[in-house]
Design a protein that fits this description.
heterodimer, A: four-stranded antiparallel sheet, 11 strands, 52% strand, B: 110 residues, 0% helix
């Protein structure tokens, strides 16, 4: 069974803290993505990566950074958490364009609250 | 302009009803198309891929009209367990990026 695993289901952090969200996939996918999902706004792309040590900004990268040191792991970092970063964070992975047509698989999500 | 537009609903239908969701996309070169289902406070999961020839999986039928840049999902004989949010998803021309609609909420009422 394919698996994308996020390190935490629920997280509460204080304003100004540095926050790490970890995501691991076991499907040998090249592509990995971080989204946030807010009511009425749908899924918005924060960052994505097509390969190890490669990263690209999505639609809303401000206040975030990412790290991909190994193919199976993609980390999202909130440099200095703020209350407007309270959200559901979803990691996803997929095969590359060479095997296009396959879907994205999602982790279970991390509900982050910044107080 | 958004890549994918969906009617957010909500759709409230009785058990046994037929319900249809529609979605339009802006990039005519989009490569792949999907419908995902998302239950409350859970992650999205693939419901079905959508092909130009149309495809059916039990009570679910998906259609793609490339000329009109339009995707549809038909659910027949609705069950209580069909209550969820349905997301229309389109990929980039290269197939590496996913664009999501904001989702259509469905509640099936006993």
């Amino acid at each position: 069974d394919v698996k994308v695993t996020q390190s935490s289901r629920y997280l509460v952090k204080r304003t100004g803290e540095k926050v790490f969200l970890e995501c691991v996939q076991d499907m040998d996918h090249e592509n990995m993505f971080w989204y946030r999902q807010d009511p009425g706004l749908g899924l918005r792309l924060i960052y994505f990566s097509y390969d190890v040590k490669m990263k690209e900004k999505g639609d809303i990268p401000e206040g975030y950074s990412v790290s991909r040191e190994k193919k199976e792991r993609f980390s999202l970092i909130l440099e200095s958490a703020s209350t407007n970063q309270t959200s559901m964070y979803l990691c996803a992975s997929s095969f590359s364009r060479d095997r296009a047509g396959t879907e994205a698989f999602f982790g279970q999500g991390t509900r982050l609250t910044v107080v | 302009r958004k890549e994918v537009e969906q009617d957010p609903g909500p759709f409230n239908v009785p058990e046994g009803a037929t319900v249809a969701f529609n979605c339009t996309y802006s990039n005519s070169a989009s490569q792949s198309f999907f419908w995902y289902r998302q239950d409350c406070r859970k992650e999205p999961k693939l419901l079905m891929s959508v092909y130009s020839s149309g495809n059916e999986d039990g009570r679910f039928t998906a259609q793609l009209n490339r000329a009109s840049q339009y995707i549809s999902l038909l659910i027949r004989d609705s069950k209580l367990s069909d209550s969820a949010t349905y997301l229309c998803v389109v990929t980039s021309p290269g197939g590496n990026q996913f664009y999501f609609g904001t989702g259509t909420s469905l509640t099936v009422i006993p």
